Amino acid sequence: MPKRSAETVRLKTEKVHLGYGDFPIIEGLDLQIPQGKIGAIVGPNGCGKSTLLKALARLLPVQSGSILLDGQAISSLPTRSVAKIVGILPQSPSTPESISVEELVARGRHPHHGMFGGWDHTDDTAVEEALRLTGLSDLATRAVDTLSGGQRQRAWIALSLAQHTDILLLDEPTTYLDMTYQLEVLDLLAELNISRGTTILMVLHDLNLASRYADWILALKDGGAAAVGSPSQVITEDFVRSVFRLDSRVTRDPDTGTPVVTPLAQHSLAALRAKADGAA
Asked: Minimal CB count within 10 Å: which of 115, 140, 165, 197?
């Protein structure tokens, strides 16, 4: 990744070790998250993508090392102060029973209210904008638990947008979405990044979507960073083989110039079909 000045990094890790009990997940990770950029975390299942995101949002304590927000240990900062700067959409969040879409989205405004602070026009505007951007205005009064999986995911994304944080962490934001809505959600995040300057870091499984939308990519493997850099620097045939144990062809998208990964079949379909026909 190109070198950036310290002033453009608000959130970073220093020699961070993460795990659950005696089971280590990430060991000694140094990472600087560039301000105002879109980043993607990729890697095989179980490599620590979600674990890292939780730690960055202070939902999981570090075992050793430090996570710094604006130069201070994030663990030492008040919860409300962190929530005003860093928002997170976890994987498969739990929805309160019978809550409406609008009520769920409105919860994103809670960090902006002090002990005696009341709801005001700014909050209304933020919720209305979040509903509009995610295409949920017509469903505002519907109970979240009556929505489809894709609609429910967009409701949670709307909550994150209403929170109006400078840094937004999303764990697989395209889960449950068909191809059209995947692109719409990622386009929405890209627009948010451009219009508001929001720093976005998200876990993605699709390498092609990560390449298309991210300014930089972190690949995790075996407890650490297997690669960090621009999509063109990270996504190569050697990288896919090393990290995912998959042979592929990496070409360039004719419109964006970003890498496109095409997996190579591990078995010849023609040979498998011929074998099946012979056995019939």
From this structure: 115
